[in-house]
Structures are given as structure tokens and as C-alpha cells.
Amino acid sequence: MTPELALKLGWAAGRVLSRSGTNKVIIGKDTRISGYLFESAMEAGLSAAGLNVMLVGPMPTPAVAYLTRTFRAEAGVVISASHNPYYDNGIKFFSTDGSKLADEIELEIERELEKPLVCVESHLLGKVSRIDDAPGRYIEYCKGHFPADQTLHGLKIVVDCAHGATYHIAPNVFRELGAEVIAIGVKPDGLNINHEVGATSMAKICETVVSAGADLGIALDGDGDRIMMVDRHGRVVDGDEILYILACDAKSRGVLHGGVVGTLMSNLGLELALAELDIPFLRSKVGDRYVMELLKENDWRIGGENSGHILNLDHGTTGDGIVAGILVLAAMRRRNASLEDLTENIKMLPQVLVNVRFEGEHNPLESKEVLDAKLEVETKLGARGRVLLRKSGTEPLIRVMVEGDIEADVLMHANYIADKVRNLV
To answer: How far is residue 341 CA from its own chain's centroid?
Structure first.
């Protein structure tokens, strides 16, 4: 990512979107320091293409999707690298209905990038304004997903915002619903986003929940589209268990449409627990885009990843960590149950994920040594285990996942395969 690329991308996207009648685009960002730079560059590129821009400042990714819909903007832009460190950044687009841009539009934008930047005439340049009440609007939207006849009064909740885009949103949502909130990860400085806090670093919130005697913890990632939870004993409740809670709650209320979509990384325990309830389960490739595709293909509503991307299409068009947390809390209130009560019937199998960093074009996953090691481990595990090897979609990592009944064996097998990969990189 460079300022030149952001400028050109804004212009190219503006050119393509304007052909379909677009004249207004919303731009949001997370709290990393480079957001200021790329926001200005995107704003200039869109204006040069003749599009008006509405800025919302630091806002969660799902908030930008919501605001794009509610302001009837033709597109939304989020400047964020989600759960990655501060020195990474990226740009994602939403269509007017709050969903991701269609593949054909993305391809058009890529083609436009190859052309020289030509600015529209001065009287056609886009104007820029700011939506000052964006945080309040989104807070009210989130609260609207909690039952109007219920309250969180009596609950003590630790909320970890990862020093990211939810720092001024999430604590207020849960406080206004009646909970006592202990907020951590709410002091962004541009460099500390996702650093030892948030949904990708759970030690701090686990410790805080136990030491504060809280009922549970909610951990979000840097842009607010992921959620992980913690029960009162300090045990992490991941995306698979959250999916189970939401599916059980929806079925008990008679509003579960079809089944649940997980991914290749979803724990076998989720699949087995859903089968006990006669709830169908399908696996997509890793990535919320593929979960969404499978949901739409089957006309189902609930899906997600064990990393905490949770989709409930009855409650939004994209993954939303705050809303997912609210839906879990609503299930707790309906059943007068604790978080650990809602997860007592799902038994997660030990699963170990080892990341191996690699550089260059060579793909270690195609080597005979690695494939032979994978086959060897799969044979030993049999039907009660799985091995998954894949490249990360966001970082230069090979992810080695092994799952089985005995944790010590799983760890040994994962490290055995990971060592084979390391020998090649």
C-alpha cells in the first residue's frame, strides 16, 4: 500500500462506480496511523473522478456497511487491515446494500487502474463532507438487535476493543443496554491496534474477566468484524461455539432457516454437536466471502469462522462483532443461562494451528515431503481427526492445522508437519 496506489484506486473505483449512477461514497477507517494518509488519498481520487465523499472517521467495518445502506450511498470504503499489525493496511469496498462488491465490478476497477489518471473538469469535482453523528447512529443500530423487553442489568462484562475502531462504540453499546462494563483496549495511539489485546490476543481479557469477577468477556478485533468471548472462568469461547449458540437459539425460537455454514477450519466438535440437534452443517473454503457464498447458495442465514467472523443474515450483511455479541447475550437472557451453560453440550476436539512464515513464489504445500507427512498423520488420526494445510489469505504464512482426540498427539503431529514445511522455506 502506497499513497499513489490509494489515490489511483479511489479514482479507478470512482470511474467505474460513476457509470452505474454513483455520486456518493462513504469512507471509514480503523485507528492505525496510516489511515490518515490513505483516507486523504482515497478522498482525492474519488473527488477527481467526480464522486462526492462522506467521511465518518474511525468506525468499525460493519458500521460502514450499515451507514452505506442508511445514507443511500452507492458505495462504502473501509481503510483497514482488520486483525493485522499497525504497519499493514488495506482497502475494501461495499456496495449500496452493504455487501461486498460483485466480482465483475472489482475486475472493472482493476482494468481501470491500468489507465492514466485523468481528472474531471473543475465544476464536476466531488465535494467532501463529514457525518458527525455516525457513532451515535451505529450505537442505536447495534442496540436494536437486543430484545426491547430485556436488559443486561446485573451483568458485569469486560469489553476489549483491541485499541481499534470499536473503542468509542462497543463499551457504550453494552452500557446503554444496562451492563456494568470494564473496557480495555480503548486507548488507540495509531501504533497499538491489535497489540496484545483484542480477538487475536486473548490473554489480557481472560485475566481481566477472572480478576474482576466478571460474568463474561467480549473481545473484538481492530476493525470490529470479529468476536471472541470468555466465560466467567476465563475460558475462551471461539467462533465455532458462538455459531453453536446462535444456531441453538434460532432453532428453539423456530427461526433457523436451513443449517449452519462453517469453514475447513471449523472444529469437528461443532459439526458433531449440530448433528445431535439435526441441524445441517456445510464447510466452505476459509474466508468470510466463501461463507457468504455458501449461505446465499443454500438460502441459509447463519455461518462463520472459528476465528470469530460471524454472519447472521437476519441481522446484517457482513460480519459484525458487536451484533454477534448482542445476539449471544440475548440468548443468555432468554434462557436465564450463563455463557458456560450455553456451551455445555458442545465438546470441542483439541485443535492445534501452527503458522510457518515463508517468502517467495515457491509453494511448500506442493512438495512431496510435506504431502507425505500430511498423509502419514491423516492415516494415524483416522476418522476422528483432520489435517488442513493452507496459505494465509492476508499474511505470508503457511497454516498447519491438526485436529484429533488427544491434545498431546495433535500437537506432536502439527509440529511434525510444520517442521517439514520449515525445511523448505
So the answer is: 25
